[in-house]
Amino acid sequence: MVKMSLDPVQVLSGQAKELKVAPSSNGDSRGSWEEKEEFDQDNLGLTTKPKPPKPENAVTIAVSTRVLFRTDREQKVFEQKGVEEYLRYQIEHENEPFAPGPAFPFVKALEAVNTRLRELYPQSEELFDIVLVTYNHAHVGIRLINTINHHNLFIERFCMTGGSSPIGYLKAWHTNLYLSADSDKVREALAEGIAAATMFSPEKQTEVSESQLRVAFDGDAVLFSDESERIFKAHGLDKFFEHERDNEDTLLDHGPLKGFLEALGKLQNKFYAKGQRLDCPIRTYLVTARSAASSGIRALKTLRAWGLEIDEALFLAGAPKGPMLEKIRPHIYFDDQMFHVEGAAEMGTIAAHVPYGIAQKHNAKKNTSVDK
């Protein structure tokens, strides 16, 4: 077994592979906020980047600085010398871009999907919209903007809270997913009904697709409620199987990331409507420890009743998830149990912990930082 650390401040051992995303149009060619030109123009009349969509129309992904970029050196300055020295250090190095962090390939994949969507629907605002959310003071904003421009990211929305909680702002942005290195803030977001996960970075990282966004989900306590997991924890595996057989026609209640899967499905359907099901740049996976014959049917019936499609479903019957995820190569994998998150990361998968449900009585690691 590979020994590794899952502390959220851990950084990638290598550089993340960047996706090549061409400039593209965001939509309308009319006159008001709802009817802007497809591109901004500079003073010379040259086209630049498209306008971001309105939050209520977009699939909004909020990411923290520490998961989008590698900020371990700056974090040490904060921890050892305090906030004033930290701010001074950031200003002195504001022309030095941060290196990519664990969420970087995921964000680049979102932008690649947007490019495809704009080709098919030039006037649509149903796109991914990325918001950078950070506890940082506004003084650090220049370095962040320089970094975003250096990596050719399209992130126009910032939320720099200067140390206060960002959760209220996430609700105002209509956030569909929040990724952070701070498990406490992730729990706070989940308590407010916002899909959220604590993101971790492996010591080694497998390459991911440059043309297709791949998102993998655990089932219980992630897409579904932890109802069945509670039965297992309290009464064991045999009682769990009995409960699932007796209730196979009773839908599972929703879990914290059901809404995010719905948002992905909504964008997938836009490609299907154009005859691109087999060439869709979004692919979703269910990777569950459930057994197919003994407990899989209830999960599949629940997804079907919700009107949600999972492209691939892997029922592992308790087998390790890491080797399967190594084959899938998702940009992100969500699980409620740290055991599975750690196993995925050991195989090079970018994994995110959803601190929800009964399993959290055995999980939880406290983490504090200036820049979650």
Please give a structural write-up:
It is globular, with a radius of gyration of 21 Å. The longest helix has 17 residues, at 104-120. Helix 5 links the parallel strand 6 (128-134) and strand 7. Helix 8 (227-235) packs antiparallel against helix 9 (237-246) and helix 12 crosses helix 13 (338-346). It has helices spanning 65-68, 72-81, 83-92, 104-120, 141-150, 167-172, 183-191, 227-235, 237-246, 258-272, 292-306, 322-328, 338-346; strands at residues 39-41, 47-50, 59-64, 69-70, 99-100, 128-134, 157-160, 175-180, 196-200, 213-217, 282-288, 312-315, 332-335, 351-353. It is built from 13 helices and 14 strands. The protein is of the alpha/beta class and 372 residues long. The strands form 3 sheets. The protein has a 10-stranded mixed beta sheet with strand order 7-6-3-8-9-14-13-10-11-12.
Task: Set down the secondary structure blueprint.
Blueprint lengths: L38 E3 L5 E4 L8 E6 H4 E2 L1 H10 L1 H10 L6 E2 L3 H17 L7 E7 L6 H10 L6 E4 L6 H6 L2 E6 L2 H9 L4 E5 L12 E5 L9 H9 L1 H10 L11 H15 L9 E7 L3 H15 L5 E4 L6 H7 L3 E4 L2 H9 L4 E3 L19
Parallel strand pairs: 3-6, 3-8, 6-7, 8-9, 10-11, 10-13, 11-12, 13-14
Antiparallel strand pairs: 1-2, 4-5, 9-14
Helix pairs in contact: 2-3, 8-9, 12-13
